[in-house]
């Protein structure tokens, strides 16, 4: 296997643009610009790859052919309805099929580079559209690029793929698509579905017949900050992923768990999100010989959060982490001010939050995070031969 990292990027990926909408491609543009200004994309072993659109074979591995035809046709019909399209969440836009297929193609390129040994790690920050269903757009997502890429890995011979989703929203589309497939472990940490879209991701959702235990859901209470989130992560994710013994780790790294995100109510910092990315990288190094595929995802604090968080992700994937105290480059700050006048532009790569957490223990008087952890551990740990009450498992 070759060392190094593939970063899949081309400005054409910015065409996934729903107009006046929270999912603004400026967040991806500013991420790449920040990573470039900090020298992350010029590191030894980093290779930028321009994507090609996913073809019909790749898309129909996950999505119904009639749905794909509807996505193609919708921009030409101002009265189009159905398939989850032409809604406030999923407005129709010109070139929708082409732009969505290109995002899928970018994640496919990342996955194939890792599986074929051309790179140890690969990143597509424009991807992570995890809500799309086989025949329905949902939650700003038209095609489900993580699922399309995972399906390709299975077709290439992968037997065990772990998908870990740290977006604030449940990774419902990926879970649903692989619900009955014991070769794919889906793990999602998210704000409780009692409070947030898409209303799924309860601990009791553990996988279909013959795939019991391959869906893992940690539903966290609103207001959970770095210490609680990281405690929950380390109490669940490493144990189930180790028990599954994956050949490759695929992560969806949505940045919308941040305290400034306007669409949700977890309270993480950029520093906590950086710690999560490093923990995921370490898990890939430990279990998968370093094979790690990462995408972006949600994140709607377009200037204040997403570019820094995903630049930290790119740094984790390409070599040494960026010092949180590092200044954001002046050229980047000026670009951000031009692209989004009036927004607060961060001066440094940190939120000045110490990243500390205590190890999970089965407490006699647990707080809300501990109760969420125990609900997940009770639901799924026995299915992997793990003891839900033993903090060493």
UniProtKB/TrEMBL annotation:
Alphabetic keyword roster: Acetoin catabolism
The protein's name in its UniProt record: Acetoin utilization protein AcuC
Residue ranges constituting the Histone deacetylase domain according to the UniProt record: 21-316
Family to which the UniProt record says this protein belongs: Belongs to the histone deacetylase family.
Organism: Phytohabitans maris
Highest rank taxon of the organism: Bacteria
Matches recorded under PANTHER family: HISTONE DEACETYLASE HDAC1, HISTONE DEACETYLASE HDAC1-RELATED
Keyword GTP-binding listed: no
InterPro entries to which the protein is assigned, alphabetical: AcuC (IPR003085), HDACs (IPR000286), His_deacetylse_dom (IPR023801), His_deacetylse_dom_sf (IPR037138), Ureohydrolase_dom_sf (IPR023696)
Keyword check for Transferase: no
Pathway(s) the chain acts in: Ketone degradation; acetoin degradation
Record-linked Pfam families: Hist_deacetyl
């Amino acid at each position: 296997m070759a060392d190094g990292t593939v970063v899949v990027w081309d400005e054409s990926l910015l065409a996934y643009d729903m107009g006046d909408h929270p999912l603004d491609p400026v967040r991806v543009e500013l991420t790449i610009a920040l990573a470039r200004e900090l020298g992350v994309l010029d590191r030894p072993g980093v290779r930028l790859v321009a994507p090609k659109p996913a073809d019909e074979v790749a898309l129909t591995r996950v999505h119904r052919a009639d749905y794909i035809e509807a996505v193609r046709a919708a921009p030409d019909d101002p009265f189009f309805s159905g398939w989850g399209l032409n809604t406030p969440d999923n407005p129709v836009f010109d070139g929708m099929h082409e732009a969505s297929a290109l995002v899928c193609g970018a994640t496919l390129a990342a996955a194939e580079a890792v599986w074929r040994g051309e790179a140890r790690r690969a990143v597509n920050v424009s991807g992570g559209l995890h809500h799309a269903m086989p025949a329905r757009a949902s939650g700003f997502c038209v095609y489900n690029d993580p699922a399309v890429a995972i399906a390709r890995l299975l077709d290439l011979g992968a037997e065990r793929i772990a998908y870990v989703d740290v977006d604030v929203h449940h990774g419902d589309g990926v879970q649903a698509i692989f619900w009955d497939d014991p070769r794919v472990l889906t793990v999602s940490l998210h704000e409780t579905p009692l409070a947030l879209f898409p209303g799924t991701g309860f601990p009791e959702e553990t996988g279909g017949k013959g795939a019991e235990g391959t869906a893992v859901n940690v539903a966290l209470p609103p207001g959970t900050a770095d210490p609680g989130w990281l405690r929950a992560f380390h109490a669940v994710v490493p144990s189930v992923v180790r028990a599954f013994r994956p050949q490759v780790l695929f992560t969806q790294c949505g940045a919308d768990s941040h305290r400034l995100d306007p669409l949700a109510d977890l309270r993480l910092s950029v520093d906590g999100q950086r710690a999560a990315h490093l923990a995921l990288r370490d898990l890939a190094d430990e279990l998968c010989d370093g094979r790690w595929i990462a995408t972006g995802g949600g994140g709607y604090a377009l200037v204040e959060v997403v570019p820094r968080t995903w630049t930290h992700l790119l740094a984790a994937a390409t070599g040494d982490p960026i010092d949180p105290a590092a200044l954001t480059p002046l050229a980047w700050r000026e670009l951000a001010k031009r692209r989004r006048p009036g927004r607060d532009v961060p001066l440094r790569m940190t939120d000045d939050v110490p990243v500390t957490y205590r190890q999970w223990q089965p407490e006699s008087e647990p707080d809300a995070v501990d109760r969420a952890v125990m609900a997940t551990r009770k639901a799924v740990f026995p299915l992997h031969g793990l003891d839900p009450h033993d903090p060493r498992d």
